[in-house]
């Protein structure tokens, strides 16, 4: 069975994940360090982990499997999920793959180095309706691909 794991603390597409998962009858795990708005759907599981660096990431990486989808903007977590052959989608609809994760990790390190050396912030674009739409299309495509793979 396909399951969806959401790195939920700052995820802007939780409602969209819930709607798509409901349509397909998929189990969803919303993993966060703090309580979220309660979900009444029986397939939506809210996992609240203790405060601390990477605790939610560790929970997701420990549970995700090859037939699952992880939703995260966290590049190191995306890499860990890819190592387990899971599909990984960023909230903007960008797929993380084995082919592009190395570049993403490198750019993350470069931006971190620039922030530390210049003591300035790097720019991250705001989340748009176009990002939300692209995310929905990518999530639907990945669910369909996984379903085809399970039935074929």
Structure write-up:
This protein is of the alpha/beta class and 152 residues long. The chain has one domain (3-151): Rossmann fold. The protein has helices at residues 14-24, 55-63, 75-83, 101-118, 129-151, and strands spanning 3-7, 27-32, 44-48, 69-71, 87-89, 95-96. A six-stranded mixed sheet has the order 3-2-1-4-5-6, with helices on both faces. Helix 1 (14-24) runs parallel beside helix 5 and helix 3 (75-83) runs antiparallel to helix 4. 27% of the residues are buried.
List the keywords.
alpha/beta; Rossmann fold; six-stranded mixed sheet; 6 strands; 16% strand; globular
Instruction: State the separation between the terminal residues, measured CA to CA.
Output: 14 Å
The Cα radius of gyration reads 16 Å
Number of strands: 6
β-strand percent reads 15-25%
Low-confidence stretches: none
CATH fold-level topology: Rossmann fold
- Can you count the helices? 5
Mean pLDDT: 87
CATH architecture assignment: 3-Layer(aba) Sandwich
Described by the principal axes of the CA atoms, the overall outline is globular
Helix content: 40-55%
CATH class: Alpha Beta
Largest sheet: number of strands, sense, barrel closure: 6 strands, mixed
The oligomeric state of the chains shown is single chain
Q: Structural class, judged by helices and strands?
A: alpha/beta
Strand neighbour order, sheet with most strands: 3-2-1-4-5-6
- Number of separate domains: 1
Topology as H/E string?
EHEEHEHEEHH
